[in-house]
Specification:
The protein is an alpha+beta fold and 134 residues long. It has 3 helices and 7 strands.
């Protein structure tokens, strides 16, 4: 029986010179700068009007209806930053476990909160959620 040998040759042995991460630095820098600009714009102080504070029972009813009908809602958190409330969070209720309410965000992420963390919740038009209006 003839014995075969395997010879492995790397690209460097053939004369290829890899520049490593140097070739990616330009793209990464521009992407990073763009991401920082977007974050700065999103974090600019925006006056958010405080909505009426709802009772936990009312919040639970709206969230339950949204969960059963798979309808989108807009939630105002009961949290302030620099004297302003955060912008409303458009989402869908994906479920609940004990006191945690799980929410599907429009960008595909999933988050959770409790009833105590919600100031106001209201149903939103599904056409707005699915971007069907033009």
């Amino acid at each position: 029986m003839k014995q075969t040998s395997i010879t492995r040759v790397t690209p460097e042995q053939l004369g290829y010179k890899d520049r490593g991460i140097v070739k990616w630095l330009g793209m990464m820098l521009s992407d990073h700068s763009e991401a920082l600009k977007k974050e700065k714009m999103n974090n600019q102080r925006i006056e958010v009007e405080a909505k009426d504070e709802m009772t936990e029972a009312d919040i639970a009813n709206v969230l339950y209806k949204a969960f059963v009908t798979d309808s989108p809602v807009s939630i105002q958190a009961n949290v302030m930053r620099d004297g302003n409330y955060y912008r409303d969070l458009p989402c869908k209720v994906s479920g609940y476990v004990e006191n945690q309410i799980y929410l599907d965000l429009k960008d595909g992420r999933v988050t959770h909160c409790t009833l105590e963390q919600i100031r106001n919740v209201e149903a939103i038009n599904p056409l707005d959620w699915y971007d069907k209006r033009k």
